Amino acid sequence: MFNTLSDRLERSFKILKGEGRITEINIAETMKDVRRALLDADVNYKVAKTFTDTVKSKALGQNVINSLKPKELMVKIVHDELTQLMGGAEAPLNLSGNPTVILMSGLQGSGKTTFSGKLARRLKSKGRRPLLVAGDVYRPAAIEQLKVVGEQVGVPVYTEEGNRNPVEIARNAIAQAKGRYDLVIVDTAGRLAVDEAMMDEIEAIKNAIKPQETLFVVDAMTGQDAVNTAKAFNDRLDFDGVVLTKLDGDTRGGAALSIRSVVEKPIKFVGTGEKLEDIQEFNPEGMASRILGMGDIVELAKRAQEVYDQKEAERLQEKIRKNKFDFEDFMHQIQQIKKMGDLKGLASMIPGVGKAIKDIDIDNDAFKGIEAIINSMTPDERHNPEIINTSRRQRIAKGSGSTLQDVNRLLKQFEETRKMMRMATNMKNPMKLMKQMKGRGGMPGMPGMKR
Q1: Residue 205: left (phi > 0), alpha (psi -120 to 50), or beta?
Q2: Do 286 and 143 fall into the same domain?
Q3: What is the tally of structural domains in the chain?
Q4: Of the candidates 181, 292, 295, 299, which lies 20 to 30 Å from 150 by C-alpha distance?
Q5: pTM surpassing 0.90?
Q6: What kind and span of H or E run contains 378?
């Protein structure tokens, strides 16, 4: 995500690390390079020009020239302006109403149906009772697709076979939902391009059901076209927010950086992968940090919080303290990590790590080998790793399709990890722990990492 733009911006700031003094001239050169980087990322020209002019003005106003750390001050100014460019702060959904009605809009292929399922899953996990509504009566298999998505996330889907009137379907679904569901998400039809018939239909649906939220879903990989399409929809619908899908792909970032300024509506969600859990609230400050290679520790903490269980954490801490942490616990921790998202995406949120791993391929199936080995153990072996002798190791290797060396390596890493965790739990001096870890060669590395 934004790798090319991040690299270009980093190179731009290096102009300020030259051997000579920082001057108005090389600040201007830096901003010229930043503007080129933004345009290459498919940012709207007017947005890019206004952005760089504002940064330049603030840099001179804050006396970057006489600053002891001009590069750092410039990065801060750019970070703050990027944050403002993308909206300044998170824009939460309006979940008032009983039921809350959310209307999806966008072109065909933008990901409306999949996102409807992702949003239903997310809000269901927060205690809501959602109902999905199949309002696309034109696209072949659209209703069936929504049914499949609904089944995957455990959310019912309202359909009316044979009814070709999406306004009636949406109105009837809301009537059915009252008293049973407190959230209705209406999926609608799209076209390959903006046309009058589609606009008339989506406008009629909105007027009929009066949703609390109308979201415009757009493929981020379409770049500046996404911004133009958003403007066309907003002129007719006056939607409440934008959803950018496929932000994990080979996108240059122009849509994310331009759409807020051009349409004057907030980005509310982004899709970060193909899995139904790959969705996150759009946080402008966190995104600005990631673009500048600073990571996004706030989003990482959010994802951890979503899978965090206080009682489970306390139980685990007690087992670690008593040196009873076993392979069942280890497997549970792996599952929790996997729920947080793809491994490279998670690692890139850690400040300073994103740049270090940009050329490293971290396989999302990195834990498969470990899981296969653990699953080949008997329950007794998982609970009591110390009983795994040579003959048991050979059986485990054969059963998991791995080598004896793989099994030995995992057992050794597991034992080292268990020791470190116990020391971390019992030790009051963390610096002493770090020195001991350094002496032992540190914690085991992440599997599946390749250059």
Answers
A1: alpha
A2: yes
A3: 3
A4: 299
A5: no
A6: none
**What backbone phi and psi angles, to 5 degrees, belong to 134?**
-85, 95
Q: Which long-range contacts (CB under 8 A, 24 or more apart) does 274-278 make?
A: 276/114, 276/117, 276/118, 276/121, 276/149, 276/152, 276/153, 277/118, 277/121, 277/339, 277/341, 278/118, 278/248, 278/341, 278/342
Residues of the chain below pLDDT 70: 1-4, 14-22, 63-71, 248-253, 293-310, 312-313, 340-366, 424-451
Q: Are 283 and 91 in contact (CB under 8 A)?
A: no
Could you identify the residue written with the tokens 């911006």?
Answer: 9
Q: Is 162 within 8 Å of 79 (Cβ atoms)?
A: no
pLDDT tens digit string along 69-108?
666 777 788 888 888 888 888 888 999 888 999 999 988 8
Two structure tokens written together for 330: 């280890």
Among 268, 291, 314, the domain-final residue is: 291
Nearest-angstrom CA–CA distance, 197 and 276:
31
Closest CA to 329 of 309, 345, 346: 309
Q: Can you read off the two tokens belonging to residue 406?
A: 């793989």
C-alpha distance across the termini of the chain, in Å: 18
| Domain CATH for 63 | 1.20.120.140
In a domain, 296, yes or no: no
283 and 314 fall within a common domain = no
Sole residue written with tokens 């999926």: 187
